[in-house]
Amino acid sequence: MHEAPSIPRTQEELARQPTVFAPDLLAGQRVFVSGGGSGIGRATAWLAARLGARVVIGGRKEAKLAGVVDAINAHLGGTRASYEVLDIRDRDAVDGAFARIAEEPGPLDILVNSAGGQFPQAAIDYTEKGWHTVVNTNLHGTWHMMQAAALSWREQGRGGSIVNVVVVNQGLYGVAHTSAARAGVIAFSQKAAVEWAPLGIRVNCVGPGAIETEGWAVYSEEARSRYPRTNPMMRAGSPWEIAEACLFLAGPGGRFINGETLVVDGGGQHWGEVWTTGKPEYFAAATRLWDDGDAG
Q1: Higher per-residue pLDDT: 20 or 221
Q2: Taking the CB of residue 24, how many other CB atoms lie within 10 A of it?
Q3: pLDDT mean over 61-82
Q4: Residue 259: CB partners within 8 Å, gap ≥ 6?
Q5: pLDDT band (50, 70, 90) for residue 144
Q6: Are 134 and 56 in contact (CB under 8 A)?
Q7: From CA 36, how far away is CA 59, in angstroms rounded?
Q8: What is the mean pLDDT of residues 185-200?
């Protein structure tokens, strides 16, 4: 068994959570984090600000964004953080946010695309509306943010770094729609990493495994109780661990890493399975037969 680190759940805990990085790692840089009102995005925003960056967070719910920004600024002093209310599915809203950011002092250096969403359901039962909602958010929305950033950097004659939060390929049964959309993000990121390299733009992805966030609430208690056993380390991950992975890739530590997907799942991609809707009896029975030595 591997001892699990503490999982910061409040603004106060995010302000104090230990980090492996030097406190001035991102000093003088600007970081834009989508989905920054909660979960991985919120942890990434806090970490970037604590490492010296000025941070902009984006999302649809102003109250959540304002709460994060107020907490960061109160803890660190000054106006270290700000927010943009936007729906990443709306290209005009995305372009408007980047235009406003470009008007502020200091260029943007890093974009972390953490915004996304899904709901657990058997793939055979998806409605057309449900499918399009997930794909529009996770794939189209991420593309909107990536291209808007790249166009802005090209216009300014400078480069930047993009990190997209995706999902691991192993398991994740019950959310096939988000797996499909995120696979598209990975594929596009790989191609963009090559095409945009002459512009000085790096593009990478981080693939989290079972990470304990507020988003777990959409899954059943039975499914959540099994998540820590979906990897050989037998624990859930923390949003803070994903935030550190994102800023490693985005920052100076990842300066020669381009077009890659860093999987942070405790080894779950090599062993384990995640059933977000509960494991069907057909497969559960097969597992019991294996465990009892009767699989032959």
Answers
A1: 20
A2: 9
A3: 95
A4: 189, 190, 193, 194, 203, 204
A5: very high
A6: no
A7: 6
A8: 98
The one-letter amino acid at 230: T
Looking up tokens 């492996």 gives 20
Backbone φ and ψ for 264, nearest 5 degrees, come out as -125, 85
**R_g over Cα of the chain:** 19
CA-closest candidate to residue 255, choices 152, 110, 54: 110
CA pair distance 67, 218, nearest whole angstrom: 22
pTM to 2 decimals? 0.92
Buried b (16+ CB within 10 A) or exposed e, 122-141: eeeebeeeeeebbbbbbbbb
- Continuous segment of H or E residues that includes residue 91: helix 91-103
Q: Which amino acid is at 224?
A: R
Q: Are 161 and 201 in contact (CB under 8 A)?
A: yes
Measured at the CA of 142, the angle between CA 180 and CA 168, to 5 degrees, comes to: 40
Question: Which amino acid does the sequence have at 222?
Answer: E
Q: Tokens in use for 111?
A: 């974009």
- Chain centroid, CA 80 distance in Å: 21
Domain residue ranges in the chain: 11-291
pLDDT in tens, 230-271: 889 999 899 999 999 999 999 999 999 999 999 999 998 888
Question: Tokens in use for 195?
Answer: 């095409």
Residues 6+ apart with CB under 8 A from 296: none
Classify domain 11-291 at the CATH superfamily level: NAD(P)-binding Rossmann-like Domain (3.40.50.720)
